[in-house]
Design a protein that fits this description.
- The chain is an alpha/beta fold.
- The protein is 46% helix and 13% strand.
- It has a domain of 166 residues: D-Maltodextrin-Binding Protein, domain 2.
- Helix 4 links the parallel strand 1 and strand 2.
- The radius of gyration is 25 Å and the shape is globular.
- 40% of the residues are buried.
Length: 383
């Protein structure tokens, strides 16, 4: 037997006496399971938090229990909007949130959430293509580490779109109808709606219903479908409008402290990468069915009127966003760099996909034609 092999079987105490040098693996006990403490920006009751918990379950299984994620809900360690700074400072190891919450630091933050307007017509899978095939993920990491000087990295994990236009205390027939109304909006979307005449208030999801009940706000945008149902919005407002162009392909993020990330073994890093992608798809599939069930419950149980957003509002939104994006690009080089990258990717993918894919409405209208709305009373038509 070679000497190097024979040393492994020499007791530690005897090795010290004889002057043998044991391999590192023999000197130290095997590392035990590691737990990362992470917090989301979501109330515990929402399916957005279910996304986070599913991710934690997959990491646990993919690492054979060697890496565990403590998936905490908003407020359990820090307030909902403070998870990014808390991750940077290592108050928590990571977070589950959405990048447009950080536009107060730099407006380019909104571009990594895919908002607004796609962008440039991209749907969720197109946007994921830009992240993984068009250099977007590298720009995202540069944004946090080089632009904001934050010690974090990020991965896409939460495809919570397309999102509804919102909830209103009264019907909205055109752009003029919501001017002056006070509505819960967040991120750069709030700035766009302000440009369109709306008064906006920024608040976490958990504060929307109490604020509506006190009359602090007249309307709110949250997500739509199951999320809005769980949040209790059908109990405070009856007019729900969809679609919206503010978050047609929204993507939330998993952020991790960069030092924590670097300290993980390569296999555990790959487990996290795989778990974020799997969570993205598996949760999204389930979520679409949950949304369908929620829409039915809203209508039947709560009497919600689910209405189409007036087209002039959607067009006005796109125009307002284009103006803001142009203004921001002129003064923020990194914003322009990211937006130009997205435009270049979209210029290839979106026209090609429009050519290859049949419109969703084509077969949908054939098998499930929309029922015509009953004529309103006093419309002048003979009965």
């Amino acid at each position: 037997m070679h000497t190097a092999v024979r040393k492994i079987f020499v007791p530690t105490a005897l090795a010290a006496v004889l002057g043998f040098v044991l391999p590192a693996a023999a000197q130290q006990p095997a590392a035990g399971p590691k737990t990362l403490k992470m917090q989301s920006s979501w109330p515990a009751s929402l399916t957005l938090q279910d996304n986070f918990k599913y991710f934690a379950e997959r990491v646990d299984k993919l690492t054979g229990g060697q890496l565990k994620i403590d998936a905490l809900a908003a407020g359990q360690v820090v307030p909902a909007f403070e998870v990014l700074d808390a991750t940077h400072k290592k108050v928590i190891d990571g977070a589950h949130s959405v990048s447009y919450y950080w536009v107060g630091k730099n407006k380019a933050a909104t571009l990594f959430a895919s908002t607004p307007a796609g962008p440039f017509g991209m749907d969720t899978m197109d946007f994921m293509g830009w992240l993984y095939e068009g250099g977007g993920l590298d720009l995202w990491w540069d944004f946090y580490q080089k632009e904001l000087k934050l010690n974090v990295i990020a991965f896409p994990i939460l495809p919570s779109g397309p999102q509804a236009f919102g909830w209103f205390k009264r019907p909205i027939k055109n752009l003029a109808d919501f001017k002056g109304m006070k509505c819960r909006q967040t991120g750069i979307v709030a700035e766009i709606f302000q440009k369109m005449g709306m008064q906006t208030v920024n608040m976490p999801g958990g504060e929307i219903v109490p604020s509506a009940q006190r009359g602090v706000i007249d309307c709110a945008e949250w997500v739509g479908g199951i999320e809005d149902l769980r949040l209790g919005l059908p109990q405070v407002w009856k007019y729900h409008y969809t679609p919206g162009m503010h978050e047609p392909s929204i993507v939330g993020e998993l952020i991790i402290n960069a030092d924590v990330w670097k300290a993980l073994p390569a296999q555990q890093q790959e487990a996290i990468r795989s778990a974020t992608s799997e969570t993205f798809v598996r949760w999204w599939i389930k979520w679409q069915k949950q949304n369908a069930d929620a829409i039915e419950e809203m209508r039947v149980k709560h009497g919600t009127q689910i209405l189409r957003t007036p087209p002039d509002i959607l067009i006005a939104f796109l125009k307002a966003w284009d103006e803001i994006a142009k203004e921001e690009s002129a003064k923020n080089p990194f914003f322009k760099k990211v937006l130009d990258s997205q435009r270049a990717y979209a210029s290839k993918v979106v026209p090609a996909k429009r050519f290859m894919f049949p419109p969703y409405s084509f077969a949908a209208n054939y098998y499930w034609p929309e029922k015509p709305k009953p004529a309103a009373k006093g419309d002048g038509k003979k009965k």
